[in-house]
Write a structure and sequence with these properties.
The protein is built from ten helices and eight strands. The chain has helices at residues 16-28, 36-42, 47-57, 64-81, 89-98, 111-120, 133-136, 143-152, 167-175, 192-198; strands at residues 3-6, 13-14, 84-85, 102-107, 129-132, 160-164, 179-183, 201-203. It starts with a strand and ends in a 9-residue tail after the last strand. Helix 4 (64-81) packs parallel to helix 6 (111-120). Pfam families: HAD_2. This is HAD family phosphatase.
Length: 212
């Protein structure tokens, strides 16, 4: 292990429940119940991509800009005032930084949203970079999301670990040659069996990374 890519939502911060609720609640105002399969597919997408996907999939009449503005204010408030860190998040970041491992974040969340919580809790003191689906140019369901990051940090994918709660992101990273560690999140528990089955490592608390 020379470098670690940490997911943000559902891994370092406890926010996946919010993302599921806000998407479902937002679509309910339009008389639409998001299907579970649609919700799972959106977990690897950026906000921009997921909104465009919802607009196309459900044939929404609103413009993308109207949809985005409807989401943006509530997301900013959540990251600024409500989101909490996952247990032992800062401790495990310090642990790996003290051991001279490269630490970056790879997230589907837009940079201007992610930056809020990263700076609020001092995560930026431990990481060397923030990579988003928008900045990389690929969603986390595409191998190029991960190979682009490993190329940027100048490491062989085989020497890079991904820590993520999304079975789709883990599956994709594994196909791209990375070592993968699945972390349990209550909001994706229905897919936990896949995480355990498909990955060499699976953990329920970040502190367990010390044993890997």
């Amino acid at each position: 292990m020379k470098a670690i890519i940490f997911d943000l939502d559902g891994t370092l911060v406890d926010s996946m429940g919010y993302w599921r609720r806000v998407s479902r609640d937002f679509m309910k105002t339009k008389g639409i119940d998001i299907e579970d399969s649609v919700q799972h597919k959106m977990t690897t997408m950026s906000l921009n991509t997921s909104l465009r996907y919802l607009k196309d999939y459900y044939k929404l009449s609103e413009s993308f800009e109207e949809l985005y503005n409807g989401f943006s204010d509530t997301v900013i408030d959540f990251y600024s005032n409500k989101v909490k860190l996952k247990d032992n998040a800062l401790e495990i970041l310090k642990y790996f930084k003290d051991r001279d491992k490269k630490i970056v974040i790879g997230t589907s969340t837009a940079k201007h949203f992610a930056d809020i919580v990263i700076k609020k809790y001092g995560i930026d003191n431990y990481i060397e970079g923030l990579y988003t689906a928008d900045s990389v140019g690929h969603i986390k369901g595409e191998e190029k999301f991960f190979t682009t990051i490993t190329s940027e940090i100048k490491e062989d994918p085989r020497d890079v670990y991904l820590i993520d709660d999304s079975y789709l992101a883990l599956r994709t990273a594994k196909s791209a040659g990375l070592e993968t560690v699945g972390i349990y999140d209550e909001n994706s528990k229905d897919k936990w069996h896949l995480v355990v089955e498909e990955n060499k490592y699976s953990i329920t608390n970040l502190i367990e990374l010390k044993n890997i």
